[in-house]
Amino acid sequence: SAVIPAAYPSILFKGIVTFGWPTGYWFFHGIIDKLKRLIGSKSTQAMVLNAMGHDKSDGKITLEKEIEKICFNPPHDPLLPRKIEAFQKITKKLGGILFISKYRSTSVHQLGGCNASSDFSDGVCNPNGQVFDPEVPSQVHKGLYVCDASLIPCSVGVNPSLTIAAAAEHVSKHLVKDVLKYKSKNCTDFVSKEVDRNPNTEEMHDNLKTRDASYVLIKETLRGYVGGMPCTATLKMRLELQSQNNCDDWNWVMRKFHPTLKGKVGGYVVLRAIEKDKLHVLDGEVDMCEVDYKTPYTQYMRYRLLLAAASGSRYILEGKKIMNPYLFALHSWTETTTLHVTFKRIAGIFSGGAGLNLKGELRISMIALLKSLLSLEGNRRARFIYLFSLNLLRTYILQIPQENHEHSVTDSENKSYPASTLHEIKTEDGYLISCRQWNCGQNRWKLRGEVQPNPILLLNGYSTESFCLPTEPNDLIRTLLEEGYEIWLLQSRLHILNPPKNFTIEDIASYDIPAAINKITEFHGPSMKVHVVAHCVGGLSIHMALMGGYISATQIASLSCTNSSMFFKLNMLATVKMWLPLVPMSMALLGDNNTLPLLETSKASMRHRLLMSIARWIPRYERCTCKECEVFSGIFGNAFWHQNLSHTMHHWLNKQSTRILPMAAFPHLRKICKSGFIVDSKGNNSYLIHPERMALSTLYISGGRSLLVTPETSFLANKYMKLHQPGFRHERVVVDGFGHSDLLIGEESSKEVFPHILSHIRLAEE
Q1: How much is the pLDDT for 532?
Q2: Are 331 and 349 in contact (CB under 8 A)?
């Protein structure tokens, strides 16, 4: 016999939070009914249908401290379909319209929150209302009781007033017993014991502690996709900042990044596709100005979070924001608001095993960033903004590099390299080239009773060494020798030992490569085939040699190319540089002496120095404190990601290996880059029209972080070969995290790249 106010069903059940039944005309009925009521021509005829019952008791009311909101997740009601069906039958009998709340089940007289349980793992209180001590599970907090509706763990199905009263009476009975027991044991009045104590003392002490601490609290909400699945991270960071005057801050930041912009992170991550509930941060660290001496001009903001799920699983989320002064800070907004993350599961009892390694990006919107700035807490907010602004000024505007440490190659490292034999070869056009041979020894295969595998010919890129690396313990030559392969490294006319003044890439294809293969054939006989591993310009020239008919595919056992093929697709910056008349202007500036000395200590003409100065000013994605590296990347574009190279490798490459740069082949290379595929020296398509000459197995490898040559190069080549040579095995691999030449000279190349080459060669041998 509950009395419902007349306005209640009119506002709630015929408002915007409802839908009606039967479908089709309930909306117009609601509008007409309201109009009649407004003009007073109709009194209300609404009646309320209410079905009471039990739900699953799995609803939750939570306080989101980060956003300061109370969130309600309603419980599941398994009988809801039957209730609605009953309502529809009644409505049909009465000839009326049924308006149902969109929220469906409505919970009244909420119960629970401090559920009573026999064990601390299933509740907050014991059956007597005493609160469990989570640090000592078998104990309770003495003197702390819960004696209201929050003790009851589930819906009772009827008005719970009497049930609540009964529970309170039960707790009170035990509370009185405990009080009497405590008084008799201590012989003192515990109530009057605390009268003289100042209740504000502890609060004042906490406030003093907070006031003395130099800190700032930052709230940040990032949204995006991880592994293609929506993800939200709500984080709260606390950075400890020490007092210092502005002048000292300026001097400190201009020398190196400020070390105190580090702190702890709390909060949670929501990734519903992996875990239904929130992933709470157990331990989190943030470094807003991380130092990496391999990339002295780049600033990083690095996050590392240890996450825990209700299921017991543990996860690690690592992310970094990369702030790079590229193209005059054109991408500064995207870089400072984009977090590149990896999400991994930690193997354990509950997770079963690792097997989860996802990557993605999370971003903070402009509105969220403004909220984050406005919600800064702590007594060092202004100092934090000042320090962070100084670091951004240094990175994007002043572009001052971090301190760097030079590394040199020791004599012992050079002497430890496997011994080799140098063969001088005279090409058909009379030019003298060389080929270096590493022989693993035939006795090894004879002892096993196996046939020695085919030798491997290595073809370098444009005047840089990618295979014979004295500083790297696991370069490709050492790796292949350990597998028992005989290796030949071609030092073509593009090599820095003796480059001619005038030549093209076509000359390497038509003269140098055939001469090298003929030399290998002299050693092993005409029936022996050769595996070819080529990089960059070496890959272009081997495709020209094959498709131009200078060598036969029957001489090649397999072909593996890194960032090169019969196609050559560059990124946007490199493409623009090739379309601009920079190469013709450079060749005109150099004149007859078109070999550019790269070493800073080399004697160079005024023309050479002018060209090197211009090259240093050309934009590139990663800048370097090494002048030789700056000149080389200014002419070509960045050939590698600096983070992938060791210090000794970088030093050896720029100070000892690449001493000069022959520019004679640049006009031909420019024509190839503008066309996007191999052409002859006159720019004619003389090669792609002969796919029948490519009857061999191929492997094309690209770097996943496009830096110079894009993965489209390997994609088009693999598609071309599968279309025209379907009878052979053709593979394509994109190695994430690598750029161009770091596919072969990177610290992790032996783990990430070389296994693909070895596998391809073994399959070809089989």
Answers
A1: 97
A2: no
Asked if residue 597 lies in contact with residue 499, where contact means CB atoms within 8 angstroms, the answer is: no
With residue 358 as reference, give the H or E element that holds it: strand 357-363
Q: In what order do the strands lie in the sheet with 421-426?
A: 421-426, 432-438, 487-491, 456-459, 530-535, 556-562, 698-703, 730-735
Region class of 618: left (phi > 0), else alpha (psi between -120 and 50), else beta: beta
- The pLDDT score that the predictor gives to residue 728 is 95
Mean pLDDT of 534-540: 95
Q: Return the structure tokens found at 697.
A: 């197995």
Higher pLDDT, 687 or 241: 687
Task: Find residue 456's DSSP bridge partners.
Answer: 487, 531
Q: What is the pLDDT of residue 590?
A: 83
DSSP string, 664-724: TTHHHHHHHHHHTB---TTS---STT-GGG--S-EEEEEESS-SSB-THHHHHHHHHHHHH
* Alpha-carbon span 54 to 153, nearest angstrom: 12
Taking 60 as the threshold, does the pLDDT of residue 257 lie above it?
Answer: no
CA angle in degrees (0–180, nearest 5) for 726-728-734? 90
- Spell 618-641 as b/e; 16+ CB within 10 A means b: eebbbbbebebbbbbbbbbbbbbb
SS3 of 731, please? strand
Where does residue 53 rank: exposed (0-12), middle (13-18), buried (19+ CB within 10 A)?
middle
In three-state secondary structure terms, 288 is: strand
Report the distance separating Cα 636 and Cα 632, nearest Å.
Answer: 6
Nearest Cα neighbor of 548 from 689, 670, 429 is 689
Helices (H), 525-622: 537-547, 572-579, 582-590, 606-617
**Segment among 190-204, 252-266, 272-286, 680-694 with least mean pLDDT:** 190-204
Structure tokens, 98 = 């049924």
DSSP strand pairing (530-535 vs 456-459): parallel
Strand partners, 425: 433
Measured distance CA(340)–CA(348) in Å, rounded? 26
Question: Distance between CA 535 and CA 529 in Å, rounded?
Answer: 20
Cα separation of 692 and 546, whole Å? 10
- pLDDT tens digits for 190-239? 333 433 433 443 443 344 344 446 788 999 999 999 988 899 999 999 98
**CA torsion, ordered 139, 144, 149, 152, to nearest 10 deg:** 10
DSSP string covering 402-449, please?
Answer: PP-------HHHHHTSPP-EEEEEE-TTS-EEEEEEE---THHHHHHT
SS3 564: coil
Please compute the mean of the pLDDT values over residues 94-101 and round it to a whole number. Answer: 79
The burial class, CB within 10 Å (0-12 / 13-18 / 19+), for 58 is: exposed
pLDDT band for position 276 (cuts 50, 70, 90)? confident
Token digits of residue 76: 């599941």
Residue with tokens 């072909």: 559
Instruction: For residues 615 and 148, give the distance between their C-alpha atoms in angstroms, rounded to a whole number.
Output: 78
User: Among the listed ranges 189-193, 339-343, 540-544, 682-686, which one has the minimum average pLDDT value?
Assistant: 189-193
Reduce the DSSP state of residue 215 to 3 states and report it: strand
CA 415 and chain centroid, separation: 39
Say how far apart CA 759 and CA 661 lie, in whole Å: 34
Handedness of CA 381, 382, 387, 393 (dihedral sign): positive
CA 759 to chain centre: 28
Give the pLDDT confidence score for residue 686 in this predicted structure.
93
User: Which pLDDT tens digit goes with each residue over 386-409?
Assistant: 888 888 888 888 888 876 544 444
183 three-class SS: helix
